[in-house]
TrEMBL record:
InterPro entries: TPR-like_helical_dom_sf (IPR011990). This is Flp pilus assembly protein TadD, contains TPR repeats. Gene3D superfamilies: Tetratricopeptide repeat domain (1.25.40.10). PROSITE patterns: PROKAR_LIPOPROTEIN (PS51257).
Amino acid sequence: MRHPIIVTLSAAVIALSACEQSSEEQVQEALADINVIDETNLNDVMLTVADADEAVRYFANANANDPGRIDLQRGLAQSLIRAGRPTEGIAAWQTVVANEESDNNDLVELAGAYVRTNQWDDAAATLNTIPPTFETFNRYRLEAMVADSRQQWSKADSFYETAVGLTTRPASVYNNWGFSKLTRGEYADAERLFIDALRFDSNLFTAKNNLVLARGAQRNYALPVIPMTQIERAQLLHTMALTAIKQNDITIGKSLLVDAIDTHPQFFEEATRALEALENNVVN
């Protein structure tokens, strides 16, 4: 008569054991999920906030400990580029592209790494492997730069125009496009594009400097009406002066150098040296 009780107790023990095992598994799974979330957050921090060299060390160690994970491979490649180590970055992006989980964005990043090291043919070959239906800002920005390197001006203009339409922050693209026009000698178009760049980012000093170059190339030696600090004004006057001197407008160039020196709130060494050299040449 006691056997049913024994059976019931045995079943209860088995059930309890199963519950304990299930609970332990659930705990381990939850901890694993937390670890993944923590690691993902740390990866994001390393890619955006951390010192670039520190990020390289972090992702290099992570890859060594867990090889084959494409997120860690991408993190290392991105960190190397951010750390100003594009040659190593190329090798890292090649590893990413060789991973079976890679996608077209990875090919674009590899092409960008080639561009950073002036390997234009490799960049073009990489971009040519990407389907034309894959249309992104970065892809067309790089296509424009490659076309520029080959002096394929019509293609470059088309790609720049497409890239501008694919981003809400086109200042750098307008600046690159303007510089392309500047190298072609199309100074008025270049000036217009640099103004467009500053319309989207009034703090982009390279666009301000390029704008002065474009105006100076047209012998327009008046500074443009754009936002600028006192130091920037002095630097732009210096650029304008050198442009004038290069075009043999010596008197104007000398006057602009004097203005640059007087405008700068500190000692303006570069402008002072240029003025002294100019005066010595005039005396000699």
